[in-house]
Design brief:
The chain is mainly beta. Helices cover about 5% and strands about 55% of the residues. The protein has 2 domains: about 625 residues, Beta Barrel (Maltoporin, Chain A); about 80 residues, Sandwich (Immunoglobulin-like). The protein is built from 4 helices and 48 strands. The strands form 10 sheets. It has a 22-stranded antiparallel beta barrel. Strands 11-18-19-14-15 form a 5-stranded mixed beta sheet. Strands 1, 4, 8 and 9 form a 4-stranded mixed beta sheet that branches. Strand 29 and strand 30 form a beta hairpin. About 45% of the residues are buried.
Length: about 750
């Protein structure tokens, strides 16, 4: 692996697109009784930059350019308010108070499109500017989520971005793009997500207890909301990064009526190193786009989508320990979503979504893994919301999907067998062909405040698996109680089902029951946090034995306590998260309950961002310094304690299942940003980022060699994650007012 690090060091000064420069506007939105207004829409009329208020009524808009603006605040059941402001060089704070009134489409749409309903638990949202400073050298916004409590991942700079939420498996997470399901949004089996931060408005994550609006997944819901293109001016940016180069352009089709946005990315190392590299060089590219049309004040039409392509072609004669002797992958992913949002009446909001998705993936990795996937799916979703007033909402919806799915491949029978070059492993072959309806779903829920201090979200969801013909019924309940102006008690429970991916007759859906109890506390306008305890009871999980007899005999549980403290205003912002948890299951091939492979007992994250305000002419003075620290217990593994020779080769002898744990993971990342002018209408941002500052040796895995010269005939050889590494990048923004 030394050659890859040598090559990467030569690329110092090149990195992913950097954080958007500009001024930050923040404040609090209150109702006539000085209570915080949760979920209010706050935006700048001139640029349509905006966000929604959190449970403290707080908002934050970053990346504002100097100039004069109108700040607009709206919320269902309240009269919209606006105020004039002038942004110069310093950050601004503006508090607002709303009066009760009727509703409009824009106000309804922002509330009805959120996955975090008024009464939600375990929810966190990040804006585009927060994602840009925390996404890391690989330019993946999903990596920001790893700094939240209860979120596990492999940890390395080049390891998979897939997340493990509260002890659950990666496939238990539901991913949405503009509220529509997007299947397996990853490159290279999960190494990097397909989401482009430049096109993101917000990312919302519900780590448990999510309402009946969404289902057929057992752990979490993540929604990536894309932003509209600028309705009033043409602008764009271009960047050169450690991982890829990218560009974006946007502007109006008709001023204040229709807009467009197109963003593209592509890796570039393969253009120079593909033939001579001694390590796998990924090649990927994607285009994300959105068209928005405000038909009239009560109707909005949008078309958003992405298309991507990836490939790796690498063969090694003498691979390093734990590294496959070949990696040959290729594939493409296409997703389109057409949405019509309509205010049928002053209190009725209607949204129809049509989606089309196609994915083709192929991979041959080492001697053990081969797969070929062709999947196509057409979906339709209809959501209807009735806002009785600003305190009560009824929501209902239908969802239907139709498609084809062809999957063939082979994998180690035991998922814990990770040596990609071991030819002695027992493999299982999979060959699935399906065509027809994939799901029929319906839901209904109430969300509101039946009493002044009590918030309630109660719903019922139905998911029909059309081929077997059974229906999963999933009741959900969430309650918030306002203890004081600064404290809120929250509780949630519900049943969460998920269809099995195996095409085996008589298999039923897996089931998880969530129990969550938490306390939110607002220390002041800038600092807030929560502590939350949870328990997930898993039943009916897919299980198989060594003869590949499938059943729903799997079960388990996940439980833990999480703390989250966040500061959103001032020169110093950031968050601290900690999770203490335990996850255990009776997994495939197991006869009893053991620690789950994604179990991490302790996870600590500290993210600190210090912004330095100075004139852009002083380009040599940093504008931002960020420190990101992560500590996580190692996950369990099954040790190899010996080996014996059958005459045809060595066979390992394993110890007790998951009886050992990898060493703890720790990493410190330092990021420094500079901002500068490059002309009257061009501004720039550059950054340097140091990964693994104190060069800690984090274990990535281990390989085994067998022979009589070793104790017990086995020699364990560890291999490690990325050492200290520096990267950087530069980004130019065009079309900015002077």
């Amino acid at each position: 692996m030394k050659s890859i690090y040598t090559c990467l060091f030569l690329l110092v000064g090149i990195g992913v697109a950097c954080a958007q420069s500009g001024i930050k506007l923040s404040g609090t939105v209150l109702d006539p009784e000085d209570n915080p207004v949760i979920g209010a829409n706050v935006y700048l009329r001139e640029t349509l930059q905006g966000t929604i208020t959190n449970f403290n009524g707080q908002y934050e808009i970053s990346g504002i350019k100097p100039g004069a603006y109108s700040l607009v605040v709206s919320m269902v059941g309240y009269r919209s308010d606006s105020l004039k402001l002038i942004a110069e060089q310093e950050d601004l704070t503006r508090d607002l108070r709303l009066a009760e009134s009727d509703v409009t489409l824009q106000e309804i749409a922002i509330v009805a499109d959120r996955i975090t309903e008024r009464t939600s638990v375990s929810n966190v949202a990040f804006t585009k500017s927060e994602l840009e400073t925390s996404q890391g050298l690989t330019e993946d916004p999903i990596r920001t989520l790893a700094s939240l409590p209860g979120i596990g991942r492999a940890g390395d700079l080049f390891s998979p971005s897939q997340i493990y939420v509260r002890g659950g498996a990666p496939e238990e997470n539901l991913f949405l793009m503009d509220n529509n399901t997007i299947h397996f949004p990853w490159y290279f089996g999960g190494q990097k997500s397909i989401f482009n931060t430049e096109t993101v408005e917000t990312i919302e994550l519900l780590t448990g207890g999510f309402p009946a609006t969404y289902g057929n997944h057992m752990s979490s819901v993540l929604n990536v909301s894309t932003r509209d293109g600028d309705f009033r001016r043409y602008q764009g940016n271009a960047s050169m990064g450690f991982y890829n180069a990218s560009a974006l352009i946007e502007g109006p089709i008709v001023n204040d009526k229709a807009s467009w946005m197109v963003a593209g990315r592509r890796t570039y190392l393969d253009l120079f190193l593909n033939e001579s590299a001694s390590f796998p060089v990924p090649s990927l590219g994607d285009v994300t786009y959105k068209l928005s049309y405000q038909v009239n004040p009560k109707n909005n039409l949008s078309l958003s989508g992405l298309t991507s392509e990836e490939s790796i072609d690498f063969i090694a004669a003498n691979p390093e320990p734990g590294f496959p002797n070949k990696i040959q992958t290729g594939g493409n992913n296409h997703f389109q979503s057409l949405q019509w949002k309509s205010q049928l009446h002053e209190k009725w909001y209607h949204k129809i979504s049509l989606t089309n998705a196609f994915n083709h993936s192929r991979a041959a990795i080492g001697e053990n893994i081969y797969l070929d996937i062709d999947a196509w799916q057409l979906g339709a979703r209809n959501d209807l919301s009735y806002f009785i007033n600003h305190r009560h909402k009824i929501k209902t919806g239908l969802e239907w999907r139709y498609g084809t799915f062809n999957f063939s491949g082979n994998f180690p029978l035991d998922p814990q067998e990770t040596d990609p070059n071991d030819t002695t492993l027992t493999l299982r072959e999979i060959d699935i062909t399906e065509k027809g309806e994939a799901i029929r779903s319906a839901y209904v829920l109430y969300d509101g405040n039946p009493l002044k201090k009590i918030g309630l979200n109660a719903g019922l969801r139905f998911d029909q698996n059309p081929d077997p013909g059974y229906v999963d019924v999933s009741p959900r309940l969430a309650i918030n109680y306002q203890l004081s102006d600064n404290q809120k008690l929250r509780f949630s429970t519900g049943i969460y089902h998920q269809f099995p991916t195996e095409a085996i007759e008589d298999l039923r859906s897996g089931r998880a029951i969530h129990y969550i109890l938490g306390l939110e506390h607002r220390i002041n306008h800038a600092i807030s946090g929560w502590v939350e305890a949870y328990w997930k009871d898993y039943r009916n999980l897919v299980h198989y034995d060594e003869q590949l007899n499938y059943s729903n005999a799997g079960f388990g549980s996940a439980r833990g306590v999480e703390l989250f403290l966040r500061k959103t205003q001032g020169k110093l912002t950031g968050w601290v998260s900690y999770a203490l948890s335990k996850s255990e299951r009776k997994a495939p091939l197991m006869t009893s309950v053991n620690d789950f492979e994604f179990d991490q007992r302790h996870i600590l994250n500290i993210v600190m961002i210090y912004r330095i305000h100075r004139d852009l002419s002083k380009w040599h003075i940093p504008a931002l310094v960020q420190v990101n620290f992560r500590y996580a217990n190692g996950t369990p593994y099954t040790p190899v304690v010996g080996a014996f020779n059958t005459g045809n080769g060595w066979v390992p002898e394993k110890g007790p299942v998951f009886s050992e744990r990898d060493p703890a993971y720790q990493n410190l990342t330092l990021r420094i940003e500079w901002r500068f002018k490059a002309g009257k209408s061009v501004r720039g941002t550059s950054f340097m980022e140091a990964w693994n500052v104190y060069n800690y040796k984090n274990l990535l895995g281990r390989s085994y060699q067998y022979g009589t010269q070793y104790p017990n005939n086995v020699f364990e050889q560890p291999y490690y994650m990325t050492p200290f590494l520096m990267g950087g990048g530069i980004k130019f923004e065009f079309g900015i007012r002077s």
